[in-house]
Amino acid sequence: MIRQLLLALAALAAALAGPAHADRIKDLGGFQGIRANQLTGYGVVVGLPGTGDDNLEYTVQSVKAVASRFGLQLPAGVNPGLKNAAVVLITAELPAFAKPGQRIDITVASMGKAKSLRGGSLVLTPLLGADGQVYAMAQGNLAVGGLGAEGADGSKIVVNIPSTGRIPEGATVERAVATGFADTPFVTYNLQRADFTTAQNVAASINRKFGAGTAQAIDAVSVAVRAPTGADVRATLMSEIENLDVASAEPPAKVIVNARTGTVVINSAVRVGAAAVTHGKLTVRIDENQRISQPAPLSQGQTALENRSNVQVSEEKKPMFLLAPGPKLADVVKAVNAIGASPADLVAILEALKEAGALKAELVVL
Predict the structure, then answer these.
(1) What span, in angstroms and rounded, lies between the C-alpha atoms of 349 and 363?
(2) Mind giving me the DSSP string for 282-302?
(3) DSSP helix/strand/coil, 316
(4) Domain residue spans in the chain?
(5) 271: which strand partners?
(6) What are the residues facing 95 on neighbouring strands?
(7) CB atoms within 10 A of CB 241
(8) Given this model, what pLDDT does residue 17 score?
(9) Which of 43, 173, 283, 360 could be a cystine partner for 271, CB 3.0 to 4.6 Å?
(10) What is the pTM of this model?
(11) What is the pLDDT of residues 293-329, one digit of tens each?
């Protein structure tokens, strides 16, 4: 009886504990071929309060092209004075499986000398894919977060970026992008970060759910999954795969150093071997003084200024500290902080530890 109770408690504890660290498969990557596509377009924003391109040649040509759509033609040699118009570049992202009639957000950015796009409206503009085909049509009033103002004396103030704006749901999808995800006997799942252990864990998790041989890790990024060919059945399978939990592999030990800003990021896998470290700081001080030199009486000399420089070099003495083998991240930070090392000092210490072979991690200097 007691033995059965102990076994039951052990099974319950194992069920409640679960994996030490598990992620959903959908958070680690995505299925091959199911991705967004970038769209771009060239258009004109009108209705600006005098903050437009101010008669740039290509702005005038663009406005004339817009007017010609409605049968209007400006006389030759006429300067329309276009301070209320600006040529812009429109960018958007077409989501996977987007259908005609759906709306997507767009970003509008000035291409000319426009000071601000605030208050402007985008004229109907086609958005093209990389293949040159029209996939959406964009139009609407801009929402601009920036602000710019200029005085008559040339003084000006600019807050954020007034030459770029967005139009939420400003484009209507006109053409869908074929994915063909239901036409092949396999679907391929690609990890965002290459890792053989994680790829094997993903395949093992899928095989536990759907049976041995369903999934196979191809390399450190891709996992091939045998799937039915029907679109509805395949969609159900992919949904179930995305929500499976998988044990994440411990990331490789890595230290990221930005030498310009003194920023240092260390992940939890970093270890340090036994090492004794001391770090001093050299300070160079140069004092420049000028002295008036007077000539001797009746020497026919001239008064002159003499420059005198005083150069001093001082070295700050800091005690040596000992790193025991195999400390964790908190121990490394604590030891360095104990001697009052600045971020710049920490960068130098880490580089020296790497050269000495005591830093058990990849050191990446940005």
Answers:
(1) 12
(2) EEEEEEEEEEEEPPPTTS---
(3) strand
(4) 37-173, 180-247, 254-292+303-365
(5) 360
(6) none
(7) 24
(8) 41
(9) 360
(10) 0.68
(11) 777 776 666 777 676 656 554 556 666 666 666 666 6
Exposed / middle / buried, residue 223 (Cβ in 10 Å: 0-12, 13-18, 19+) = buried
What distance in Å separates the CA atoms of residue 42 and residue 102, rounded to the nearest whole number? Answer: 21
Per the prediction, the chain carries an average pLDDT of 79
Give the residue among 193, 199, 337, 332 at the shortest CA–CA distance from 255.
332
Q: And the tokens for 79?
A: 């300067």
Task: Confirm if 304 and 271 have CB atoms less than 8 A apart.
Answer: no
The Cα–Cα gap between 97 and 137 comes to 17
Using DSSP, state whether 204 is helix, strand or coil.
helix
| Residue 70 CB neighbours (<10 A) | 6
Tokens linked to 365: 């200097």
CA distance 89 to 330: 49
pLDDT digits (tens, 9 = 90+) for 32-67: 988 899 999 999 999 888 888 877 777 888 888 888
Q: Parallel, antiparallel, or unpaired: how do β-strands 362-365 and 254-258 relate?
A: parallel
Asked if pLDDT for residue 189 goes beyond 60, the answer is: yes
